[in-house]
Amino acid sequence: MKRGFLVLLVLATLSGAAAFAWESGIFSGNARAADPQPATGTTSSWLHRLERAIGIGGSQAATYSGYVEADYVMVTSTIGGTLITLDVARGDHVENGAPLFGLDDYAERAARDEAVAKLRQAQAQLADLQTGRRQPEVDAIAAQRAQAVAALQQSEADFQRQVQLRATRVSSQKQLDDARAQRDRDQNHVAELDAQLEVARMPARDEEIHAAEAAVTAAQSALDQAQWRLGQKSGTAPAAGLVYDTLYRPGEMVPAGMPVVQLLPPANVKVRFFVPQAVVAQVRVGQSVLVSCDGCAGPIPAIVHFISPRAEYTPPVIYSRTERARLVFMIEARPTEHPEALRVGQPVDVALTGP
Fold this sequence. Notes:
Mean pLDDT: 80
Radius of gyration: 47 Å
Distance between the termini: 60 Å
Structural class: alpha+beta
Strand content: 15-25%
Order of helices and strands: HHHEEEEEHHHHEEEEEEEHEE
Number of strands: 14
Low-confidence stretches: 20-59, 315-320
Number of helices: 8
Largest sheet: 6 strands, antiparallel, barrel
Strand order of the largest sheet: 1-10-13-12-11-14
Helix content: 40-55%
Shape: rod-shaped
């Protein structure tokens, strides 16, 4: 029984080899005329005839194997803290700006509130310096001036009376001098109150106002910094996409700079495929390709955006004609339509098309 199986296996192998040889033209006297090949070596000629024999040669566009890859967006916080809320789960679809997570922000909120209070204090001090004294203080000075004016009018009348009495020698020279001195004191008092009233209505000195303005600017900067630190305690989606993974659970400590949510925007999906070194010169950035996969409704168009400058799987030998056939170059293309139909790690076939 075992010998019969071996005989059948040998016969099947010989039949396949004979069919391939007949198809490739070995038993035909005009094999080269039927299948002209450039003088590039026996290996390439046999590979070409083998492709035709199994039905992948001819004018049909060649396809190259590859897989789906993606550039993930790692949403992080520059300030560490305990994870309090996780607003998304793996597999969710989020919109741009949607909340993703929140860290403990008690200290940051307290710092923000303190900065707000200091800013209001600085603004109030600046407004006080710019408006001068309060109105009740100005009114008090004005009332004192009114009293001084009344006293001046009385002393002026007394002085004029003493001048008349002295002319008739009814009063003495001393009484006239006393009346004149009182009149002069009242005049100076009115002038003093006029000056105080003018000063009360004036703002502070320019140097004091400039210092107060600088204090307001410093307080505003401190508030901006505190507000920024508070904003770092929560993460939002920088773009619409798929939540590919969540890396922490609520209650865990998240170090500064560590990602919490791994996001995959559709525009970041790409296809990596590999072409032989003999074909890489025909591919250029911006070229159109068609991506096919198992279960896809149809080919997905994509655009080549990267061609690797070095070969993959390079054998550690001198590049002979035989060994060069093993060299492939990695190429990346981004889908222009329906990127959501592709899954990371999914094997695909890529066909080169027009420009």
